[in-house]
Amino acid sequence: MPSLYAHAVIRDLTSSHTETRMAAWEWLTSPPPGSEQERIYQWQPVVEDQLLAHGEDAALLDAVAVLEAQGCFGWEQSQPALMHRVIAALSRAGGDHAIAAAALQSNNLALPQLPSTGDKETMHP
C-alpha cells in the first residue's frame, strides 16, 4: 500500500494546481515515520520519470527549487533529459530563471558523450 500511495503523490507533482504540487513535495521531502532520510532519496528516479512524462513549466520550476534545496538536482544527480527540459522551462520563464538556465547550460560537464564510432553524424539532445 505505501508504494501505491507514493505513486499517487508523485503523480500530483505535475498537477496543474500549485497547492497539490506543494503538498506532494512536502510529503516527498519529509522522512517517513521511524526514519531520518527524506522520501525523495528513495523515489527520485520515479519523480524524474513523472516530470519528464507530464511536467509542464510550472511543475518543472517547482521541481528545480525543491530538488536543488535537497541536493538532488544537477548534471551529476539528474537525468540529462530532465536537465534539458528544465533548462528550456527556465529559459521560457525569463528573468533570473533565464540566467539560471544559461548557468546550467554552461555547466553541463557531466552530459554523457556518445562513444566514437568513426561516423561523422552526431546526436544532439
Describe the structure.
The chain is 61% helix and 0% strand. It has helices at residues 2-12, 18-28, 40-54, 57-69, 80-93, 95-106. It is globular and about 40 Å long. It is built from six helices and no strands. With 125 residues, it is mainly α.
Question: Which key features would you list for this structure?
Answer:
mainly alpha; 125 residues; disordered C terminus
What share of residues are in beta strands? Answer: under 5%
- Taking all residues together, what is the mean pLDDT? 86
Low-confidence stretches: 109-125
Supply the number of helical segments: 6
Give the ordered list of helices and strands.
Answer: HHHHHH
Straight-line N-to-C gap: 37 Å
Given the helix and strand composition, which structural class is it?
mainly alpha
Name the helicity range. Answer: 55-70%
Q: How does the overall form come out from the CA principal axes?
A: globular
The total strand number stands at 0
Task: Please summarize the sheet with the most strands.
Answer: none
Radius of gyration: 16 Å
Give the structure's gist in a few sentences.
The protein is mostly helical and 125 residues long.
Describe the SSE topology:
Layout: H1 2-12, H2 18-28, H3 40-54, H4 57-69, H5 80-93, H6 95-106
